[in-house]
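#struct-queue
[09:14] JT: dropping the first one here, sequence first, then the structure tokens:
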Amino acid sequence: FRYRRECRTNGSIPGISSTAANKIHPKIKVNNFVGPAIIRVSCVTKDAPHRPHPHKLVGKSNKSKGGECNFKVDITAENPMVEIKNIGIQCMKRDECQDSLQDRARKGIDPFRTGFGSTERIDLHSVRLAFELLPGFQDDEGRGQLPVVTVSNVISGTKSQLVIFDTCPPCGLTRGGDKMILLTEKLVSSDVLSVVFAEKGRKLEEIWKESVEITSKSVHKQHALLIETPPYSGTTTTGPIKVVVYLQRALTGDEAMDRNRTSNSVPYEYMPEYAPRNKRVSSLLLPDPE
């Protein structure tokens, strides 16, 4: 699942048996029909009766506002299988759902003829794909007859949990600008991430916070980040200043998807630039006072 703001990649829906070593795509088998046709694919709700779902399908050549993807095929008795490649699911936020369904209604995309009702109870985290077979190569050719429709298994969208395994070094100067490496669980390229440095008060509330935005240049092999620490600008004046560091995913506007938008916290210490040296602070971090 991708939100519109995550337009760097549309993703691709894999087949049920797809693996990293052997990638396959969804397939359908057409029975009792031979000839040219259009396979129209759109999102419907997971539970019957399958209503039009506000999420849209996007593909390399798909420019439809109705959110469907159309594939021209030529069905033969020898090859009744159709492979659906290079389509992804673009998620709609709750306040975008009604407009999305209105686009669908204007194009008459309602595979099971269930109509376009309220969006309040639609599950935005799961969909099915509806496959319609429209005889002929023109979209209008199949309008006079009820298309043949089938649905896929349920497809669910989730955001992976953000995890920090370790950081290096564990401390740095309050002026910031020190290089820092974070070892993480696998990062998703479409996520908009930041590294947050935060100081907590007596009641564990955040009394100071600064974020470092992550760019593609910051990520190494999807499991490590290289950043520069931000300067400390809190009110604590004596060192060492204990803070926590965590990853944070940008808000999507969807409550359920945003529940796990932060990672675990790891400790970090800011040291005043001319603080007395101790065993925990490398002499490389602290210049000799003049």
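[09:21] JT: and here's the second one, same format:
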Amino acid sequence: MRGWRLSFILGIILSVQARAGGLPNDEYHTAYSFFSEGLVLVRTGAKEKALSSFVDARRKLEVISRQHATWNPAVVKSLLQKIDAEIIPLARALGITPAQIIGNAPPKAQAHSAR
């Protein structure tokens, strides 16, 4: 009887640890799904929806970078670069400054250059 309780408790502990360790992996796969969806939407001409999917993917990866900085940083960086490569021309085609989405510059930077 005692062995059963110990096995049960160890099983719970191990499953909690496995779940906690899987979180960045799950988030990455969600981000990749958003990215893939964006690619399909670009091909079908749904530019606004595609941009939204790319932004969702980027946000997921930013969370991984902040909360799990040691989880496959090269993989996260690579997908971020692919997403940005899609966002930049798509945003420009929609009349949006890419920096507003990617965050490399303040959103009002374009307003001064438009004068």
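[09:30] RK: nice, looked through the second one.
[09:31] RK: Residues 48 and 77 are 24 Å apart (CA to CA).
[09:31] JT: good to know. Confidence is low (pLDDT under 50) at residues 16-21, 105-115.
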